[in-house]
Amino acid sequence: MKRYIGMRLVYLLITLFVITTATFFLMKQLPGTPFDEEKLNRLPVEERQLLYASYGLDQPVYVQYVRYLANVVQGDFGTSFTYKNMPVKDIIANRIGPSALIGLQAVVLGLSIGLILGIIAAYRHNSAWDYFTMFIAVLGVSVPNFVLAALLQYYVGLKWGLLPVAFWDSYENSILPSVALSVGVVAIIARFARNEMLEVLQQDYITTAKAKGLTNMAVVMRHAVRNSLIPVVTILGPIVVNLLTGSLVIENIFGVPGIGSLFVDSIKMNDYSTIMGITIFYSAFYVFIMLIVDMLYSVIDPRIRLASGGE
Amino acid sequence: MQQQEKASLDHLFRPASVSAKEPEKISRPPLTAFQDSFRRLRKNRAAIVSLIILILLGVLAIIGPWMTSYTYYDTDYSAVYKAPNADHWLGTDKFGRDQWARIWEGTRISLLIAVLAAVLDLVIGVAYGAISALVGGRVDNVMQRIVEIIIGIPSLIIIILLMMVMEPGIMTIMLAMVITGWVNMARLVRAQILKLKEQEYVLAARSLGASNTQIILKHLIPNTIGIIVINTMFTIPSAIFTEAFLSFIGLGLQEPMASLGVLIHDGYQAINTQYHLLLYPAIVIIAIMVTFNILGDGLRDALDPRMRK
Amino acid sequence: MKKKWSTSLLCLLMLVSLVATGCNFSGDKGSGSAPGGTAPAADGQQAKKESVINLSFENEIKDLNQFSTSDNISFSVLNNVSEGLYRLDEKHEPQPALAKGVEVSPDGLTYTFTLRDGIKWSNGDPITAADFKFAWLGAMNPQTSKGGYAFILSDYIKGGAEYASGKGSADAVAIDAKDDKTLVVTLNQPTPYFLRLTTFILYFPLNEKFVTEKGADYALKPENMLYAGPYKLTSFDPASGATLVKNENYWDNANVKVEKINLKVIKEQSTALNAYKAGELDRVMLSSADVDTFKNDPEYTTDIEFRTNYIQFNTKGEGTSNLNIRKALQLAYDATILEQVILNNGSKAATGMIPVQMSGVDHKSFRDLQGDLIKADAAKAKEYWEQGVKELGKAPQLKLLVPDDSLSKDLGTFLQSEYKKNLGIDVTVETKTVKARNQQMDEGNYQFGVTGWGADYDDAMTYLDLWANHTPYRGNYENPKYDELIASAKKEVDETKRINMLLEAEKILLAEDAVVSPLFYRGNSFLQKPHVKNLIFHPYGSPVEYKYATVE
Asked: What domain count does chain A have?
């Protein structure tokens, strides 16, 4: 196992390197400049050239790439083009907090409610509980989350005045966005958990467990849940990454100063250094979570051998 | 010859002629897996109702626009933001365009996108995941790293680059979705098969000399079908909204064409005062989703041999 | 096993609280720790109700560094925490601010400003003429100026253009800090609107010692800035907003009535409206869809910006190279539909390029002097179209280039439907991301496109100058007569003659050569709480003014 992890860490670095390189060269093909071309249009050509040169953009792309890589290795991610004097590192550090908080709350909320609903639904297959759960699950995916967010904001925030409508002043501000985000998670988790539980509950070892006199509760908790976790963990990996790294729409609706809108804006504005910074951050996180998910497979089901044939 | 001999020995007793196959015979008419599934599906009333509603929606998507005298593109600046009425059954939008016509026009496109996304998932995602898990070892490692790279490179960059070289339209949307749409499915299928391929019955099949293909088709895919069906359910709405996003940045449909995703986006802009613009397309999309889901569940149960009662 | 589950849940919860502490909520708690001036957060004052205004921006506050900033929202903040030699008053006229007055030489080229006595930075240091010189040079220096706005100084100040293009030296720029109180500037041409320019952000002073000391960290945090305006920042986060409190070192401190301004960033209009209804905001911009619902509300107001949205024709584009085709496309849509139906938010149908209310001469607006240049006429449009088609030999296939924001997309849909109705032609709307659109226009790879321009200062030159540079972005337009008019207007001392030249130029650009086609002058509709009075929004430059506001 240790050797497998070691191998994976090496692969992790290679993967990150490929992603960084590919993104850098693709990004440079994006139309336009990182500046406001409409304004730039007014400047004489020499002044425009000076501006490009002051950011090193007059160099060939591979030179820029080597320079960038050298800086990154030293921990310097450059300054943003949009927030002109701010180091990209600081911008990401500032904006990841709010996104991570609502993302994490959404995952915790969604995972716990989703699992409970899914397990109950499977356990009471074809009962009212089952139908209720599946109804929630279908609604959760088919109602776009911006519509749900708007409804939450209107009723909970404005009509009933229970929570702040928007902004980011105190902890209460994080509740509505988290709830809005979690509904999708509940839907997905409940659906997969129910499906797997249904299959697991028909296995022989469940019958054995029941036969040896375990209570239903104990059977479910000890044998069934654990064995139904593989798809849940698989689907949870990307969900965790996506939620923790921000959701553009929810952040905009609730005025959360998160990283979701930063990423989209940076690509739309050709903010090269910010694009690279977030890409490296995001993919490192993703690759790392995937590694954890793969390890969890073996923990959940010891029969799965990832390393087989890998030497 | 033997028979003659026996008859000569004891002509009073006529032993029943038993072929070797006889004891194994099943008296019920034989069913192929498909027929069996279909029989079980037919018994699931909810699934059949869903199928009917889905067909109805499909038919409306085709003939709906022709049921009214208005077209989806004709503007009427004297009748903007009309609430639903006898003339405009579902009201009008900010350009005075008839919502009824637009919604069914949009449903047509969104259904197309939905089917497309599902097919992509099934073809690329399932195959990729299955191969990765089955071959395992180094191949699995490389294939999974490729997935990570695909996810790691921001898809918006690739989409904007696509915009520069391609004409907007369904083909472009499809290509944009090919890039990342299937990844979750691949990972799910891989995880499930990783689990399944260590199970006893696979081992048994293998020791009996079953080929890889047989194992995949007979054992692994059928046991993964539940997850495949469910994930397809989640792929469809996300594909519909991805299309709306693509259309918004100019990669998908161009005005005055509309899809349900685009209509919902537009409706959301007027949510405070003109909520009917959001409500009706949302109802259609929820109807599509609910019926797809129930049907999917029915299919899942029908295809899963263990659910047989 | 059960225990394990609860442990992992506990771990997760702890992780949540850990993240929660690290995500800088911008609540009032944080704003207490603002150095840079000894804020009198006296407990006694808290008993008396503090006058506060809560406002919002629809985008981030991107850059508060005066040298490099270029967006209206940052301008709005800076305009209230700093000040120029002059400041615009409630009627948008420049009034002496940090300067006591000015003497202009008879040829209109030399401006001698005398600074007000006793003006101080928020740290108590005196504001001197040298502070202006430092700031102005920095804004033109290609090393520090990164916002593409250097032209607003370098176009006018002698030696500025050479310095900004890296060829001239700083010493050759004609800004002279004679002594602490006297600033002398020499201009290239007589510029009747120069005093208005001094109200613009890039003309504000900066304290050289402080800026150099802070280096790269300057303007990134409230404590890394010095304030010369009616307010100072106590908290600032680009993505969530800023808090402004009264600057007690400001010379006109006594006339600043509102103690505190809370500025929040909120990108969704529907959210802003909900926050307004919940009492969390005192003013909110309405989206077109909501206007009819609130039109008769006493809290409803509208204003007008100096911003014109228009169609740019590519005079070398396929089909649009033909004058008659362009004229047909100019007349074939009815812009009043935009005003009354599609926008419905106080915007006005445009009949020319220069926005309504922009100054002309003798207290008459430029628009009133010019009258309507373009008026929709479907019949005439059809005639021009047929004429154009005859000249070209076939009807051109047209593609309208549109950026991917909702407003422009709506304009595209509108134009498409009008051309279909009035000319019977099918125009394709080509939606592109802003950057892709800009590149296509820069390369001249378009036929016609929807675009807009906001005034940097209150003079028709801010618009008409654009088409004298012959770039593909401006439709590859080249007409010696037009260039000549612009060039001589820049040199003209006589105000009436100058305006007449500009009037003539606008006429050539629109009516004769049909290079552009006006759509609408931007207006906005708002709801504003009745207890907030005198919140001034300037139609150009640095839009928002809190100095004159009061709360009842």
From this structure: 1
